[in-house]
Amino acid sequence: MAKRKLEKSAANVATEAEPLTNHEASNGSSLDHPVSEDERDEESGADSEEEEDEEEQEHKSSEPPSKKHKSQLTAQDVQTARETAELFKSNIFKLQIDELVSEVKIKDSHVARIEKALHRLHHCISQVPATEQLTLEEAEKKINSKKLVIPFPDPKPTKVNYKFGYLPPEHVALVGSFGLKTGIASQHGQGIDISLVMPKSLLSPKDYLNYRALYKRSFYMAYLAEHLLSLTKKENLPVKMSYYFLNDDVLCPVIKLESIKTDNEEDLCFHKTKFTINLIVSLPFGVFDTKKLLPDKNCIRVQSDIEELPPTPYYNSSVVSMTTHDYYLKYLYRNKKSAEAFKDACTLGRLWLQQRGFGSSLNTGGFGHFEFAILLSALLNGGGNSGNKILLHGFSSYQLFKGAIKYLATMDLLTGYLSFSSDLDQSSASKYVPEAGFNTPTIFDKNIKLNILWKMTKSSYQALRSHAIHSFDLLNDVVYDRFDAMFLRRTGPDVLKYDLTFRLTIPEELHDSFGALEKITFVTFDNYIKHKIYIILKNALGERATSIEIINDKVNNLFSLLKRKPSTQHSDTYLIGIELNPDECDKIVTKGPNDTDEEAAAKFRSFWGSKASLRRFKDGTIQHCVVWSIENNEPVASTIIHYALGLHLHPTITQHLTSSVSKFNAKLPVPSAASSSGQGVTGAANFTLLKESFEELCKVMYNLELPLSVKSILPASPSLRNTSMLQPVPFAVSNPDFWNDLVLQFESSSRWPDEIKALEKTKTAFLLKVSETLNKESTYKCFLTKDDSIPYMEDITLMNVLTPGGYGFRFRVLSERDEILYLRAVSNAGAQKAMVQKVYLKFNQKYLGSVKHSRTISILATHHTYYSPVVRLFKQWLDSQVLLNHFNDELVELLAMKPFVDPAPHTVPNSVEKGFLQVLDFIATWNWKDDGLILDLAKRTDSAADELENKLSDKLTVRAYQVIQSNFETIRKNDPSAMKTQFFVGTRDDPSGILWSSDVTLPIASRLTALARAAMRMVKEQNIDDQTLKLIFTPALNDFDFHIQLRKSDIARSSGVVKTGGYKNLSGNYTSFPDDITSRYDLTAMLVEELNKAFGNMIIFSARRCAALYDGENIVCGVYLPNTGNKKFRVSLAMDVKPSNEKDEVSLNKESITDQIKLLGGDLIKAIRFRK
């Protein structure tokens, strides 16, 4: 199975492999001395000789070993397995890593092809003639404006007193991941970076000021490009040339070469390799004094009224990085040689970053393969607080990767920083310097005076660290296989990644705020506006948000040679993605400083404006604060964001800021109870009132004088675990979850009958006694009903209790003899064992499993506040698709629990939108035929929890996991095609995995998967708006053979749901029960029950459970079973048939069945419509 997944990963794993700028080794990578064809032949000959030697060794080793030799190999294998487990977490994990690395390896044929193209390109570069001592006017005339223009950065130079020129580059070398041999195959191709170092004679020591070096570099590049246009044609190297901003850096344009397919056999085309070539004009190493280019220095002089100009960190770092391409290649090459697993660790790091949307470019976070490789190198030479080594050279690739992830997760590079030296001659230990950071992500090279993370923002670093923390937890997981979540699955789309997503279109007026001082500080408006939005949101949300990401929707870095810059490099639309802190995000008060702190109070009032107020709290403190109200289904965090951006960014920001989170919240039915007003989607006031009523009933029951006293009353209903589709409202008897199941246990007694039928009659006698006592001595109303939920058991009785508060409870009695008698019946069943096992399974569901399930889910629902609204919305979606009546509530709740207990590669959802879509995404991607779902239904303990706390927790152990997995494998061995058992959902409470899914059939399971896939396809392809959401919750009735439209019934009021529209005075709650409680029941469920009894062997019937959500209109859909086609007539067919056109065959009499359905439904049926 792992191999199949890895084969699939080859197609999905790689997005565009970003070039590794600042880079790699001249050894074997230089283009100054191309390898001749003779040398290549000699090398290939040597390789073939080595291969022959290896084949001889393999042939020898394939001979049958002697007994002594065999025993030695076995001992060696054991030792190897032990070492592998230590180095790679497990043997399987090592195999997966090896398979993955081999899958993403670049094809040798592609490498050979591109190398030929690179040598031919190098020959072209060597033919470019020199020119120097040109003025700006002469330089511009030197370039043919009909072919290309000089890509000068803004502002374009006008009058300068320095000269321009072109001389052959000092050094031409492969840099980036291709030069370091750490590149990987990609669907979208890979960029190969070639560094051309400008001669020092063309630059002066002062050229780092005011763009001078960049202007000279731009002319050098344009002059080179103009000559390459003709030289590549001459040398039969057909390429398309364009300018390209490397890593989104507008100060660093490069020449991008893409192969053109031609019919000329002499042309060297490499389009099939999907490689592109980036010609990077580098500045010579050491040409500038890098101390003057530190991030806190100003290197762009502009006229301004202020005394001291602000620093220019982006500009300074960009200039320094242009001098280091060859230098860092040598540094990384040395580390690659010193650590054997360095290359594979870099591959793992690249894949991990790509799957989480990170790269070296500014718009992908500024942390890519190059930055990861530098981090590995620094940690191989230290990295601890005292310079101690974090990674050792003998580590495996997994250990190196895990060590780097742990460092990113545990070390704060904002408040502190990592200092290292890249000096190749004098090696000094890397060191983490705590509490002395620069308030910006920093890995500082003290030799070059460059911050490697200069392209990162606080926002992107926060997101990277959050991913590292979650990934480190996955790597420490000893129970589950986390390989897929780490390397094969992407974290997108955005609605699955963030709790809140906003689309912000920047108003045109904001561009006016980007003045000269802002330009020299941030270089581009994109950097400026991202920084400004982040500062506003960080101050506004505070502890409510754990991560804030701001990403431009569309970045255009590629532009024609005839343009100086792209017409629009950045879109005006930004994605704001926010991950919330569940402990803080829904608080309606933002607390500020105490009234005694005048300076902090002034800042607080300045930021919050008129919303700020002074209040006294219960503990006696007087604090400045802001109180928020919950309106229009908006989360508190969303309200804060709208207000803060409107106050500090643009007054009409609401017109430019859109989000779909409130649309999902609005889909949840609004309860009509007064207790629900003013509370958000996580409000549990109605559930709390029900639980209070349950506790009062328990007190009454415990005080009753009975032959056997009450031992326990255990809840077993969705409403008592906060998961019912409709919230409980007093006297809402039309609510499908009105009756709350309870399991009643009396004290132990040896006088319980030893036969099931007699036992049930004894229970009935007890319930009669309880019912009579309650009716006489309390205000509770009680009556008994029969229970037919367990097949062949006709003597089970339920006690129904109506409370004065308007709630309904349903008791069933469990004794200590029940399970023993059912198991005895199973063991004595003989030929009817399968049937009796089904009876026991139903007993287990109703009496044992539901109690355990309720206890577990109640705990988790309290721990995960957004679980309750997510599972309720998921049930509503299933009901809208006419599927809910085919699933147990418990099974639906377990499926919806998956993102909360095992969200990898995503994070635990803290919004209804994210949680609901993660559930759909899981179902859409779950291969239930080959993979069982094993859930660890335990509260997540803090990673810092001690060993004793972890041992005492209810976490799933390795042994328990193996038992459940073994049960799944046994089921699939007997049912490989998943015809009998589709969903396997194993937990600690249910190791069998089929307690709640045994009734699901193959058509229903396949239907659920297909609907989830269709919904997720729509979400990924379209923006989520009202129309999209409406389609997601609209059933595809044409997929059914027919559907029965039932007459409309006004049950919204008696269901406890606020009816949309209508008169307010008619939407109030009932204050008492009707004389006949069944008069307010929705009869749809009873109709479907009768239809299944009559035609269940021919038709699959589906119906909505809650008609109140659809204005009282309900439908029953039907699909004919495949086995109802033409067949030979026999007496035992058990279905309504008619003669067929075929000889001796009959077919289903659908017309007659339709008439019988109409007769059975009577006035309840409005019309029956058939598929066209």
UniProtKB/TrEMBL annotation:
Ranges of biased composition (kind: Acidic residues): 38-56
Pfam families for this protein: Nrap, Nrap_D2, Nrap_D3, Nrap_D4, Nrap_D5, Nrap_D6
Sequence ranges of Basic and acidic residues compositional bias: 57-66
Cross-referenced Gene3D superfamilies: 1.10.1410.10, 3.30.70.3020, 3.30.70.3030
Protein's UniProt name: U3 small nucleolar RNA-associated protein 22
Record GO cellular component, one term: UTP-C complex
Start and end residues of each stretch annotated as Disordered: 1-78
